[in-house]
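User: Batch of two.

Assistant: Item 1 of 2:
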Amino acid sequence: MTVELPTLTAELPGCGGTFKASPEDFVVEEIPAYEPSGEPDCEHLFLWIEKRGRSTQDVARALARHCGLQEKDVSWAGLKDRQAVTRQYLCAPARYVEPKLSTFALEGVTVLKTARHRNKLKGGHLRGNRFELVVRGVKDQPVAKEVLERLVHLGIPNYFGEQRFGVGGDNAEKGKRILLAGGRHRDRFERKLFLSAYQSDLFNRVLARRLSAGTFATALTGDVLKKNLTGGEFLCADPPLDQPRVDAFEVSPTGPLFGPEMRRPEGVVDALEEAVLTEEGVTRELFVAGGNETMGARRLLRIQVTMDGAEAEDDSLRLKFSLPAGSYATVLLRELLKDG
């Protein structure tokens, strides 16, 4: 289902090596959009957890079951990888969780701290994620350094990573079938997961074309440009005027998460996005049937990586960096390793 995705640094070889030899080789820490207030009379409890070998849903489901809650009562800002050491916030009603938290036990999961807050934690309420990754068996440290320097300078293609598409890689195909069936599916969680995966696959297809054309970091007439800090959007009417802002990472071109509320580009950009839909045999109108799961948005085509360290250790490379929310560390690793 998913299309072959070109890399930004295709002219450079892979540095060689593997990652995730152990969960400790892939450490992810959420950068919250805000910290809980800690006021004792607030109704929501934030739980800062560390987990190994567990998905976010696994922990949320177990917590809900232990505290006599429904799964929907436990929320999070973002999903975190199962095969990693990850730290993030979960949120649940304090009056149900606090009396039972001392007896909550799940292998691989530790509750590091808790604090109350007046509002429920919702999806997307985070600034980004910090990563500490170890690539083992690196054969060419100099080429790894050159790739990283280019990514810091040019930005990273903001592809959705392979984990977005499920273990079998067929979540997007399932989402397409749901759309073609009028949006009907028996399981609410699966429906949201599969429809989102199909939107992600279409975005990746558009980004792949822009990257192949050399325009993923180029302001084109008709582009929907987005301000990197505030998220404000506007149509590009004067590329020479806007390109310096793109070069400075002040604004970036965007790609489609198709849906009725998505701002539509114009001209050649709109034609490119329409061509991807046509090849798939779907129309924009179909996304209305997805309801709240496919309202639509614009997503940055490239994102800026903040490198905090890259240390060679014999044949290993330890990387410390941060990415904005919704971006994938595996995309950076793919540029390094060039292994598909």
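Item 2 of 2:
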Amino acid sequence: MSLKHDMTGVYLPGDSTAVLRELAVPEPGPGQVLIEVGASGICGSDIGYIYHEHKGHRGVDGPAYRGVVAGHEPSGRIVATGPGCRRFGSGDRVIVYHIAGCGLCDNCRRGYFISCTSPQRESYGWQRDGGHAHYLLAEESTCVPLPDELSYVDGALIACGFGTAYEGLRRIGVNGDGDLLVVGLGPVGLAAGMIGKGMGARRVVGVEVSPQRREWADGLGVFDATLAPEPDAEATAGLVADALGAPGALTAIDCSGSRAGRSTAIAGADEWGRVSLVGEGGTLETEVSDSLLHKQLTLYASWVTSLPAMAELAGNLARWGLRPEHVVSDRFPLAEADEAYQLAAGASKGKVVLLPSEEPGS
């Protein structure tokens, strides 16, 4: 096929704007593929650490944004391959795992490119061009097959938020033996609720401050109840217990990244419960004896997921008949990236995605 020579990409100057620039369509080198981007999600970490201000993922001492094309949640179709590619070819539909690691360290060899500490480690949309463009140059090693049953929007959501939620739920072993409490119903929390249902949780209860987000979550048909938190975590845990008809949830996951949210997840867990922390930022503050020791709780901390687990998740979602795109509340063409980021940074009900192949008004 004949490819365009130029394309549009979205950049984040760090002043709460998203700007469009023209750049050349790259050519794949050894072990690389060129992807026509079908969908690219806007992540909360991009909002907090790049869109508003130039900081790295863990603050000023973390890996900094290098002024590249933004977007680390891409999915699309391979249109060209470089020398040495063996797993994928032109026409293949893929999800892009958003970190390119060194490939040699223990974490990389386990598939956890996110935890690679080599200077060679690069994140799409942070240190190398990401998915907010018509085309993306990716390492073949970071590509995950996208099942035919799933859309490009589904794939974009799996690339980060759904993968993060899945890893957190895998750590705590969500299954049909107990209920699941999800604290924070942003995109990752919505993903946790959907995946929790797929993994067999008996009942799924969500806690969220925003009435708008609770209403959106209710419309997904995933949560058995969505609750507004009380000022005190123990009081909120009482609401959770009432909703479940049980002392608490066997498994709980905090997706809020807030001190109050983490306290709620711990308070809402039943004896011998398992609590997963996946929300970035903030602090953890808890009373130890009654809240942790006497309840025999186990706490897990989880950062994104592995490449094999992401592939496993994509297959599971197709098998379960679940569509991540249902948590998307707003879709924008690439030309309206600034409006998309304003909404994602403000009052969006659910997930916001960019569709590079669509034109304004289509």
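The first helix runs from residue 44 to 51.
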